[in-house]
Design goal:
By secondary structure, the protein is α+β, with helices and mostly antiparallel strands. It has 4 helices and 9 strands. The strands form 2 sheets. Strands 1, 2, 3, 6, 7, 8 and 9 form a 7-stranded mixed beta sheet that branches. A two-stranded antiparallel ribbon has the order 4-5. The longest helix is centred in the C-terminal third of the chain and has 22 residues.
């Protein structure tokens, strides 16, 4: 039986990986299970880089580790454009924004760029497998299938802690059928990455 540490305490993230690899005989461990309370300094510039840092760090405790990180990106801007929220969605110019301040800041930003900005959450994943780091992140046309608009005005209510939901509206680039097909293709690529990097086959 393969033993894998998931470098998180988030139950939903743990279940996600369990679902992805449900066809394998795996014994799952979390940071809580191993009583790991220390964390690495996340100095990466992208979700993938931060995931790699975490995977390398937690690799000192376990032979097989999965870590991830995520960020918010504006898809019509280069990945390294200063306007990108990236890993710091709530921290702007060194200040931690409240929910209301986030709404004000992002609605103003959308106003400055034509009234709405095409955005998507981007995930980076890294695997540590017996000393070797492998990573996965897609930032290309595929992200448009997960994209939404951030608008310059409130269009919906939100749950406290998730203020940008109030500025979200959906896109109409693709049909529901095409979107579902692309998401299935992504799931297959991601599954293959996990299987290959964890040496499950």
């Amino acid at each position: 039986m393969k033993k894998i540490l998931i470098g998180t305490t988030n139950p939903s993230k743990i279940k996600k990986y369990q679902d992805y690899l449900s066809d394998f005989d795996i014994e799952w461990y979390t940071l809580k299970d191993l009583k790991i309370e220390t964390t690495p300094e996340e100095t990466g510039q992208t979700p993938k880089e931060n995931a790699e840092i975490k995977a390398h760090y937690y690799g000192q405790f376990f032979d097989s580790v999965i870590c991830n990180d995520s960020g918010l990106y504006f898809l019509d801007f280069p990945l390294n454009d200063p306007v990108q929220p990236g890993l710091y969605i709530r921290r702007v110019h060194g200040k931690e924004l409240s929910d209301e301040e986030m709404i004000d800041y992002y609605s103003q930003l959308a106003c400055e760029h034509g009234g709405k900005i095409l955005a998507s959450y981007v995930q980076g994943v890294a695997v540590y497998e017996q000393g070797v780091i492998s990573s996965f992140m897609e930032y290309d046309e595929f992200n448009r299938y997960y994209a939404f608009y951030l608008n310059d005005h409130i269009v919906d209510t939100y749950t406290p802690g998730w203020p940008l939901d109030s500025l979200h509206s959906s896109t109409d680039f693709f049909s529901e059928e095409e979107t579902q097909l692309k998401k299935q293709e992504y799931d297959e690529r991601f599954h293959q990455f996990l299987v290959r990097s964890l040496k499950l086959k």
